[in-house]
């Protein structure tokens, strides 16, 4: 090897790449004769030709106006197999039940759907699966929000690339930003397609004040706001011509018929989609609303989606599998749910099996999946 290297008199080192390139005297002399305009080839620089499609590439064929008119949107539950993977058969059945009962849109991978427990690969796959199977029958709103603007941008690009009709975006949580930073965060994603802004201070630790929404409302792609602060805030927006969905099931009847809300993004509609449609479409019905309030209170006695996951398992429409850190409600609460189903009427709930209490040992808790 030493003999082979004797003919080389100079070296050019590239420490960053970790190797040495040797040039012979002959090669050096030849290079001197080349034109000063000559440039070395850039073979090592390979452009990424597989970036996600951008929304302006006509992948998203749903207008913002189509999203604005939706009255009942379900924040859909994600069911699991015993090993913690998605149970797509059960998931498809849940979506079909929503469609059959007149629900107009679904949130995929939201808080209720446990998007916070998914990898982004799982998340985008589930959005794409939903669009491919049901996109012609129901509007698919993908939760592609994040407290990282970079992640929100990337996830939204991918979500619109696989065909979601609209995006749901949260304000940055935990590592909170200033109000100017909040506006910049939303402006980074809102132009990609129809967008619903989600305000839930109890989870994010920071309210999205009206002036932020009013600034964002200048964008043609703002579909509206899912508002959890209360009906007075909803009234403030509707007076300004901004579309709002109630984010509180227990307030949605009054929000719809007394405060101008367009509709509701609901958890309870996972269980009784037909009755929730009646509340949103059939006019004021305080009797029906009062009938459902105990169920709504039961659902939210612990952080969502603990109650919903427990209830759907008791109805036999999903396996009793929980991704940690969520765990089922205790036995006494499961007994309460059975009584609520009997009071409201089993025929109004999804599924066709008898409601059961379920024992503690029936539930599977998965920490690695």
UniProtKB/TrEMBL annotation:
Record-level GO BP terms: diaminopimelate biosynthetic process; lysine biosynthetic process via diaminopimelate
Matching CDD domains: DHDPS
Pathway(s): Amino-acid biosynthesis; L-lysine biosynthesis via DAP pathway; (S)-tetrahydrodipicolinate from L-aspartate: step 3/4
SUPFAM superfamilies: Aldolase (SSF51569)
EC number(s) from the headed UniProt entry: 4.3.3.7
GO terms of molecular function: 4-hydroxy-tetrahydrodipicolinate synthase activity
PROSITE patterns found in the cross-reference section: DHDPS_1 (PS00665), DHDPS_2 (PS00666)
Keywords, alphabetical: Amino-acid biosynthesis, Diaminopimelate biosynthesis, Lyase, Lysine biosynthesis, Schiff base
Catalytic activity line of the entry: L-aspartate 4-semialdehyde + pyruvate = (2S,4S)-4-hydroxy-2,3,4,5-tetrahydrodipicolinate + H2O + H(+)
Protein family: Belongs to the DapA family.
Known role: Catalyzes the condensation of (S)-aspartate-beta-semialdehyde [(S)-ASA] and pyruvate to 4-hydroxy-tetrahydrodipicolinate (HTPA).
NCBIfam families: dapA
The name this protein goes by in its record: 4-hydroxy-tetrahydrodipicolinate synthase
